[in-house]
Each structure stands twice: as structure tokens, then as C-alpha cells.
Amino acid sequence: MFKKNSLILKVMFSMLFVSGITFAEEAEKVIQKPEGFMAVLTVIPLIIIIFMLYKKFDMLVAGFVGGALAMVIGKISLGEANGILLKSIPAMLTITVPIINSALAMAVFKSGGYTSALSLVKRGIKGKVEYLAAFIVILQAAATYMSGIGGGSAMVIAPLAFAAVGAIPELIAAMSIAAAVCFTTSPASLESSIVSKLSNIPVAEYVSMMKIFALVFTILAIALGYYGARKRKVIFKEDHEDEFSSKSNKELFIMTIPTIFLLFAVIFGPFVNQIAGMPLISPLVYSIVTIILIALCTKLSLGESSNSMVEGSNYILVRLFSVGIFLTFINIIGETGAFAAIVSVAEIAPKSLVVPVAVLAGFLVGVPAGAYVGSILTLVIPIAVSLGFSPVELGFVAIGVGLGSQMSFVNITMQALSSGFRIPIIDVVKGNSKWILGCLGILLVISYFV
User: Fold this and answer.
1) DSSP secondary structure code for residue 32 in this structure
2) For the segment 293-310, what is each residue's pLDDT rounded down to a tens digit?
3) Is residue 172 scored above 90 in pLDDT?
4) Residue 8 within any structural domain of the chain
5) In which domain, by residue range, is 435 found?
6) What is the domain count for the chain?
7) Does a structural domain hold residue 328?
8) Domain for residue 438, yes or no?
9) For this UniProt entry, which segments traverse the membrane (predicted)?
């Protein structure tokens, strides 16, 4: 076990040398690039943070130690640090859609909607749980691609997966991979918009060129989810009270209606809105409809349904507040200028390796700083554009950043998976590591030859 953790720790240490974050609204802020020994010195706080995290220190304690050291190294005043704090926490708490989806998912879960759905599926696939695992990955990919938001989709789908098969590491990694490749190539995502804006490439053109590569990695993710469930010989998790086994298919289907509607709203809502030319299925609309459906189709009353939604928001709000504080320390480190120096490494790479190096740099930047992938792209994409990258090559860089974010403690999709599968986020990171790194290897090979 120690050897395994040591290997992961070494990998994470290497990642620190190209990591960082900035807020999207401050993308144009120029931070002076440190030179020589100073460039190396600014990386030390990140090394300390990751080391402490893997030694099981509290996330905020580790962040405070690294952030305080960065303030000394970068000569950042308390006033400046306070300003960063007051931007970091609100930025996390304004991630509204994932908060709403998490609360609704918990309300559906409490009503028995997920269990009834799984009881129906169990009767239909006759114990072939690997097919359900593959289908869950498809749901995650579809929901993310349609909405452009991985975390909001995972908030709804992860509890469903946990209720069915438990916390299978390969399934969690597969959902992460599917989310990463889909939100970085989605026509509805912030990330695609940023690539389009910074490179003057129409979003539609960028999305069209990246479809085949997104599909390849999505298929790999689906296969991984299938493999994990089959390898571990997982069976359906049973309800200890077994209250659903005696119900008819009709009764189970009625109880499943809120689940079906919520999944439909998350996955196909953006598509329906685009066709309708108006927000027909908005968070407000599907929140109200879901609560009403829970009251009509399950044993919960309207008041209980509403309260279960409010109570369901507790976990995600607490986690986002904690992540906001931790993100403050990451952003303080960013103010030292280390990231400006590191991202520019691609400029000095040999011509034949410049694209893979840029992809690798993007990945490594995303690991400890993946709360806002769009913000990271504002650091990396301008350099890639200046080097004459094609739209596809820019897409490879974006996917690289997305994959890196799926090993980040501050990424909202990772928080969603931690919450939905009810495991510490450190376990999500460890479980994802080898599969994410494998996908990175494939992406580097593709970026070299394409």
C-alpha cells in the first residue's frame, strides 16, 4: 500500500512543476514571470500542499501552510490575500446549477426514486450489472456534452450509480474521463467558447473537428466502466428492507418518474431549449416540476419533498465553501508568478514536440488547479495560438487540461463524485490516477502524430 501511495505521490510531485490557476475575469492580468532560482522557489508551496494532502492532513491546513509560504516568497500582503479570499469563496458558491442538481438528486434519492429505477433495471438486465455501468458512463457523457457542465451532471448521476453498484474505482474514473472530454469539446461549454474566442475559430467549427476525438475517449470510458463492474463481479446492492421487491413494475415505474424527468432535464434540457429558442427546461422549471413529481409519485408529501431538496443541498454547499477557502491559497500561489513561467515552457520545446509539450503542460496545470478549466485555458491557449496551433491541436490542449482537472481536489466534478459515491475525494483522486494518466498517454501519442 505504501509503495502504491509513494508512486502516486511521486507522480503528483512531478505535476506540481506545471500547475496553477487564475480567475476567468482576470484572464488579461499580466503577472511578471519569475526567472532562475525564483521560478523554482515559487513551486515549493505547491509541493508542500500536495505532500501534506497525501499525508492525510486536512485540506485547509495544507492550503494554509502552502499559501502562507507563498505570501512570504511573493511578498503578498494580508490585504491582497484578503482580496483573493473574497473573490475565491463567492466564485465557488455561485456555481448554481450543480448546487441545484445536487439538492434535487438528494431529494429524488430520499423519495426512493433511484431505488425503484434500479429495481426495474435489475429485472430487465437479469443481473448483468456491467451493462448498467456502461450505461451510466453514457449518461454522464451525454449529459455533460449537452449541458457543457460535468459537475452538474455528476451531481445527478453519481448517486444513481452508487445506489446500484457502489463505489467502483473504474466506474468513477470512467465518469471522470467522459466528463473531461465532453465538457472540453461541447458546443455548450465555457471551455469551447474560450478556445473559440482566443483563437478566432467559430465554436461550431471547433466542435465539429473535435467530435471524433471526443467519441474515441468516450468509448474508452464506456469500456472502462464495463470492465470495472465485470472485473469486480459486482452485483446489485440490495435494499435491506426489500420494500421494492414486492412492488409491481407499474408501481416501480410511477415511483421512477421523478428520476426519469430529472435525467431528461439535465441531459436533453439544453437541446430542447435550443430548439424552442427559449429556456423551456431551465433549472427553475425542472426544480419545481421535480418536486411536484416527487410529491405525486412517491410517498413523500409536497412539504417533505421541498424540505428534502433543501436538506440535500447541505453537503455540496459545505464542500464548496471549503473548496473556496482552499482555492484562495492556490490563487495566492498563482500571484507569485510561477504559473506564468511554467506555461511558457511550450515556447522553448523542440518543434516536433511542441504540441505534446503544450498538451502535457495543460494537463499538469489542471491537476492542483482544476476548479476552473476555462481559466486555465486562458493561460495556455494564447501561447498555443502564438505557436500556430491548428483547431484540432488547440482541442488536444483543452482535453489535456480537462483530464488534469479530473485529478484535482478543487474540481467540481470530483467533488460531485466524492459526494455521490460517498468516499473521500483523496480516494477519487487515487482511483482516477492510473486511468487518467493512461488517457493522457494516448492523447500525447495522438497529438504527436495528428
Assistant:
1) P
2) 999 998 889 998 888 888
3) yes
4) no
5) 99-312+344-450
6) 1
7) no
8) yes
9) 6-24, 36-54, 60-78, 90-109, 129-148, 206-227, 252-272, 284-302, 314-333, 353-380, 392-412, 432-449
